[in-house]
Design goal:
Helices cover 71% and strands 0% of the residues. The protein is mainly α and 132 residues long.
Length: 132
């Protein structure tokens, strides 16, 4: 990992940790432990509050972690696609940074490509293919 801010380092570390099977198994184990302890605590309001508060906090923090990871991944993929467009002969460089346009402009630019795809399917009779 190259330099970066403390948040980036922590976000990368946490996303790797959160994505492991062992983390999932651990979370399931904690929920099972909480459930088993229900009778011990008489299924009290405090017993319920522990799981509700814990899951709310984890969910709240994970939303930001997931969004950060998704934003970085999307930016990296876009940059790679932009490079492929840039180096491809006869490519339309106007498509670079397309994700910055509004939905109406994207739909307008996309329409000719959808028409090309429709014609190609008709020509190759792909529209006639049915699931067997």
């Amino acid at each position: 990992m190259h330099g970066g801010s403390w948040f980036l380092k922590v976000a990368n570390l946490l996303s790797r940790f959160a994505g492991r099977a062992s983390t999932f198994v651990g979370a399931v184990g904690l929920v099972l432990l909480w459930a088993v302890l229900g009778p011990v605590f008489g299924f009290s309001d405090t017993w319920q509050l522990v799981i509700n508060t814990s899951t709310t906090i984890v969910t709240f923090l994970m939303v930001f972690l997931i969004q950060n990871t998704q934003n970085r991944d999307t930016a990296a993929i876009q940059t790679k696609l932009d490079e492929l467009i840039r180096v491809t002969q006869n490519a339309h460089n106007a498509l670079l940074d397309l994700e910055e346009l509004d939905d109406e402009d994207i739909a307008r630019i996309r329409a000719p490509y959808e028409e090309l795809a429709r014609r190609a399917r008709e020509q190759d009779h792909l529209g006639d293919m049915r699931a067997e």
